[in-house]
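Researcher: I'm preparing a figure for a lab meeting and need a structural model of a single chain. I don't have an experimental structure, so a prediction will have to do for now. The sequence is pasted below. Please return the structure as tokens so I can convert it later.
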Amino acid sequence: MPIKLAFSTVACPEWTLEKVAQQAQAMGYHGVELRTLGPGSANLACDPALSDPSKTRHAFSAHGVEPVCLSTSLLLHHRDDSAAREAIQQVRASLDLAVGIGCAFVRVFGSEVAPGENRQAVLQRIADRVGPLADQAAELGVQILFENTGSFTKAKDWWHLINAVNHPMIGVCWNVANAAASGEPSSVSVPMLNTRIRLAKVKDTRVGEGSGFVPLGEGTVGLEAFIQRLMGVGYSGYLSVEWDRLWLPALAPAEQYLPQAQQKLKGWLDAITEAVTKGQAAAAKYAAKNAPKPRAALKAG
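Model: Understood. Here is the structure written out token by token.
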């Protein structure tokens, strides 16, 4: 299956869910990553926690667009037991909401190591908490994905955590810009995580300059190389465009940014696919030309 394109609703906090679905279809996106701040928030008009799940599912189905991921703000690294119990209950509720909407994934965080804490101990604490949640996720058919943020932006930590949990319903939502900001290129991240990457997030910045987000391809994150490496390991999931207008309202509006991002990503995907196809054809031609010739049969006598 080819890689598909989605965008996160952090790009369009003022749109309704109906408009999100309609615009995704019109702009050529296959899916949408639905950001949620929880049922008590009023900062996101398209927050699925504020709407009936069946209505949300119908709105996307009517436009032929997939609700890909329910992206939460939930954290599983808490040292405080009561905060951890509350977060676990909220993850369980998010899994139920994702089922109602039709999302394949729920995104969570496990991002902070407090001063004086051992990072391996924090990772083990996160793994211990997500294990029982994975069983519920399996029953519901929804995967739980950790996004690389905060103290854990590099692949090695997540490789260890996913292996420690060892459950098919637990994976990674890989934010290539966060990894790049910590100095890790996709040539390291992608081969190491491989099939553990279930959703890929793309945004661009000029790493190290503090210049903020820029249009795809105008920064130094190395997005085209990231896509090449994803294709090299057989990735066939979504690329989700992140444009953080929810937090940075001065950024260009979604109507302007998202079509440009879709065109840029599609151009890269088409070019990479064409190059791979040509390379395969050339290799096949070379192999046929240089194949050993069969020996002539020996005559009896």
